[in-house]
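User: Sequence recovery, please. Input:
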């Protein structure tokens, strides 16, 4: 897998990738009422591309992995007792890290996380933060293997899910 910054020419293929991931994840028990779709939104992805915050993994000339990392987060993050106090521009938030199911088990999620960590370090960030929906245990274990610390469980209502859900928040000090 080759990881690179996404470009606007990747947008349509990237949205197909995320749609497929929404359909896959929508079948999981931790998401209420099945697939809500729409995460990340086309606007979020396009904005991330324009701001150099969207990354893709390609293999066999297709997008099979992706993530977004920027400074944007739900306002509930402001109420969490993080390990370190930092301004919003000193921390990165990891979003929508996904690998197509047919590529699972090859270590690609770990490669994306390694890439994100190196990118954040290169930008002299103090920490990376993220949230995982309660019940989605596999990525939580992976993040902790990189040194992310579980900080708290908070309730967030993301538009694509549509109802309040509990999310575990994690932080990695850089």
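Assistant: Recovered sequence (174 residues):
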């Amino acid at each position: 897998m080759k990881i690179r910054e996404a470009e606007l020419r990747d947008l349509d293929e990237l949205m197909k990738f995320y749609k497929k991931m929404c359909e896959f994840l929508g079948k999981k028990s931790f998401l209420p009422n099945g697939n809500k779709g729409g995460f990340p939104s086309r606007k979020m992805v396009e904005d991330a591309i324009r701001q150099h915050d969207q990354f893709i993994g390609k293999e066999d000339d297709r997008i099979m992995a992706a993530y977004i990392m920027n400074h944007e987060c739900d306002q509930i993050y402001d109420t969490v007792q993080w390990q370190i106090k930092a301004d919003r521009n000193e921390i990165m938030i990891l979003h929508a890290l996904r690998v197509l199911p047919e590529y699972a088990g090859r270590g690609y999620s770990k490669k994306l996380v390694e890439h994100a960590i190196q990118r954040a370090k290169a930008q002299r960030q103090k920490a990376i933060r993220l949230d995982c929906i309660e019940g989605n245990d596999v990525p939580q274990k992976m993040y902790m293997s990189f040194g992310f610390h579980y900080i708290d469980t908070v309730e967030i209502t993301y538009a694509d899910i549509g109802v309040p859900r509990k999310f575990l928040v994690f932080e990695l000090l850089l």
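Residues 11-25 form the longest helix (15 residues).
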